[in-house]
Amino acid sequence: MNLALYTAMVKAQARSWASYGLGMVLYLWLFIGIYPSFARSQALNHLLKSMPPGLMRVLGYTVGVTHLSNFLGGEFYSLLYLVIMAIYVIFGATKLVAHLVDNGSMAYLLATPVSRTQIAITQGLVLLSGVWLIALCSTVGGLLGAHWFVQHAGIETRFFVQMNLVGALMFSVVAGYAFALSCMARDERSSLALSALLTILFYAVHTIGELTASWAWLNHLSLFTAFNPQNLMQGHGHFVVDVAGLAAAAVLLFGIAVLGFARRQLAL
Q1: Cα–Cα dist 46/53, whole Å
Q2: DSSP alpha helix (H) spans, the chain
Q3: Which of the listed ranges 67-71, 100-104, 177-181 does the model predict with the highest average pLDDT?
Q4: pTM value surpassing 0.90
Q5: CA 78 from centroid of its chain's CA atoms
């Protein structure tokens, strides 16, 4: 890693990180704020009971809504959280390499004494720093919001932190393949399109696998299967296995990205 380049890129990314982090917290607080009205009416639970089990799983509900953690797992972390993180990761990965190659800025970086390997490692660390900063905002914001806005929220701090950790690691994997594509795709448009297509494909496969038992085997092919917010916030699932597997996959993908960029022929 090159510290000077990392510092410069962090300064350039700071406004984007602040926007995503603040947006994540504000949306989270919005959902926390409306939870008491749902808890009093029980209308959501009645609606969920009338749905087929497969549709409930697709919507992120493995159990009903008895605590704030159930509500956030189904309403926020099963969709909006995924959308915010995916947008940051896909666009962030593309801008950090493919965009610089396309607009010619990469030529200035390569003209410095910094090696290609150092550039790729530094840019990858900048991307991961953003992922983990936004995930930290989600974790701290969720815990503070539950404490401030809801009495007897029923959120177990340890499990809430574990759930956010799995989410951050899952998007570290998404960042890994998006960054690899950014390092090796022929242009910015291809990098962006392929990263988005692969992410949507993973989510679609997971959705189909959850809808019906006959297609449940598809869940083994989707990255999103590792992230089940309601289960994780109940302390269920395979936390240690998921963390180890996701961390290993992220390291492998970033390694491939660095190696691919170091060996790539660039027409600058």
Answers
A1: 14
A2: 3-41, 43-49, 53-58, 68-75, 80-96, 98-103, 105-110, 116-149, 157-184, 188-211, 229-233, 239-263
A3: 177-181
A4: no
A5: 11
